[in-house]
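Researcher: Quick sanity check before group meeting.
Model: Go ahead. Protein one:
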Amino acid sequence: MSIDQQKLWFFEGGEVETFVVSTARAGRGCVQDSLRTPDGLHRVGEKFGDGAPAGMVFKARRATGRLASEWPTPEDNLITSRIFWLEGLEPGHNQGRDAADRVVDSRSRFVYIHGTNQHAMLGRPNSHGCVLMSDDDIIRLHPRVPVGTIVLIRD
């Protein structure tokens, strides 16, 4: 995945698919509360949303029972449809704490790849640290991405 290009590439069986995404408005970074997208090597630690309808809104990784189209504040950047919860694989960079003892752990920062209700903003930085995808794209990828899948986030 490229922060600079706002694209995610999915490799499967010698084929490559390209998806338009949105990463953080604040740019790249791993420190907790920075609202930045962490770079480096990750893996999909957990998945959520299997079977949920497109546009289902999630809070704390649980379906709310309401679709984004029914949400009372549609301007909110919502977590919709499916979630891949990322775990950093680089101690001191995107896992655990850094040399200055700051939390840099992608999992404890709740960094996800997830669907969004703000499809018109895809291709431009628009998140608070997560990687946003269209509902259709994340739903298509969900069954094809097993837990443990490696994710590289780079400039």
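Researcher: Fine. The other one?
Model: Protein two, sequence then structure:
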Amino acid sequence: MGPEILRDVSLHVEPRSFQFLTGPSGAGKTTLLRLLFLSLKPTRGLVTVFGKDRATLPAAELPLLRRRIGVVFQDFRLLDHMTTYENVALPMRVRGREEASYRADVVDLLKWVGLGDRMNVLPPVLSGGEKQRAAIARAIIEQPEMLLADEPTGNVDPPLASRLLKLFRELNRLGTAVVIATHDLHLMDQIAARRIVLADGRVDIHD
């Protein structure tokens, strides 16, 4: 099955907590995020999310659990044929909700992340930083209990990275547990937060 990416890793993400996940390239940061998002099964060991064991979780329950988790992907994954507003509202549409029930929430959220004047444009028109903020807005529109962000500041300049970090901190203050995978030491030095350091397949935690 190939070499183990992670081994002997033991950690617990507390509700309403904030932590950075860091380590050298190839250390397994994205793999650990995928395990937390339940998109990957461990070859051995136990992964429990919201009290549910991934190994025994019925397939029908996966979508319900994932709705409680927001994910900001490194490559944005915005749909180019949809406007910024439509991309952020997509999780609501997928659930079959009527637009009237969520439109105000989407508009308010886009204003909160600084995209109030960009909600009707298509992603190809947006800058890298604007795409990143749109991806964050889409990830948190359903007010997730946990947010996983994979290198969310990797494509933006330092001032915007600091602004994005403030958005994540504010979201955390509102009650969401936040896990940010990053190798940006300058970003991590801006706030006092738990650091989960991956190296050689193992984890070292600095509180």
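Researcher: One line on it for the slide.
Model: The chain has two domains: 1-68+144-207, 79-143.
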